[in-house]
Amino acid sequence: MNNLEKRIAPFVSLGKLLKTNAIEEITYRAHSQNHWFTPEFVTESLQSIASAYLEEVTLRRWLQTYPALATAEVVTPQKIGVVMAGNIPAVGFHDMLCVLLSGHHLLAKLSSDDRLLMLFLMQQLKEIDPTLAERITVAERLNDADAFIATGSDNTARYFEYYFSKKPHIIRRNRTSVGVLNGTETTEELDAFGRDVLQYFGLGCRNVSKVYVPEGYRFDTFYETIEYKANTYINHHKYFNNYEYNKSVYLVNREPHFDNGFLMMRQSASLVSPISVLFYETYTSAEELAEKLAEQAEKIQCIVSQNGWFPNSLPLGQAQAPTLFDYADGVDTMAFLTSL
């Protein structure tokens, strides 16, 4: 077994584990800790990690794009402090994967919202390969770190910039995702778009919170297509509380909006919509829209459109299906880690 295979072997084994019923208990435990993390969404997230990140061929192809990792035993090991988000299940896994596969020591400050799930993944890795236990540390303070990767809001990013400025760092801020519809989408494609909007209750930065549609576009078919999802959202008390609150605000303020009983749509120039609301805006040409979105590129994580027709977009339904090469905020985490 060569160096590259040794490095990826524990993660390939973890991927196989995540595709079995061995994850059933942790899906319910994670839900008991954070009710936004339903067992169904936790299962989806873990199986997506297994399929998109932890296949042997995929891992090898990814690491071979970084010559230092493909040839060297390890880079010079350093302590990497990672402040993890917790907005969707196991959202910090990609950073953990990058740190460990680059040969560094992980100092992880976990989000209280996603603590159980990340601890589970760390424990499984340690059991698969006990040598990894020496390179995984959960910490509340990251003073000993040599470099930092931090994910948070725009406000916390300013705090991170201040405290981490003297050492190498990646600091991520608020981002959201947008969709572009052209009016020719099939019901299957609109269903996939509904997944981009509603998966994980819309809490992820890759969830679509704003959609651009042609002048005169009607949302009837979209609403009819996603109607079968109603029970999932109406019966989730945290989501539905947000829906009822936002609906009350719109009704009291007499703000025009569409409503199907669990997802409202309101015209707005803003990119970020509240939970249970999808903002929309019309466009007259793809060229004009491309220019508008280019001006807001630093606020957009990804764009989805029918078969990816819109420039630099993904196909509908792929917003929450990132690959190993899809780095948050477009910053290559692995290139950063191998340059230290």
Automatic annotation (TrEMBL):
One of its GO terms (molecular function) is acyl-CoA dehydrogenase activity. Keywords: NADP. It comes from the Bacteria. InterPro entries: CoA_reduct_LuxC (IPR008670). GO terms for biological process: bioluminescence. This is Acyl-CoA reductase. It comes from Runella defluvii.
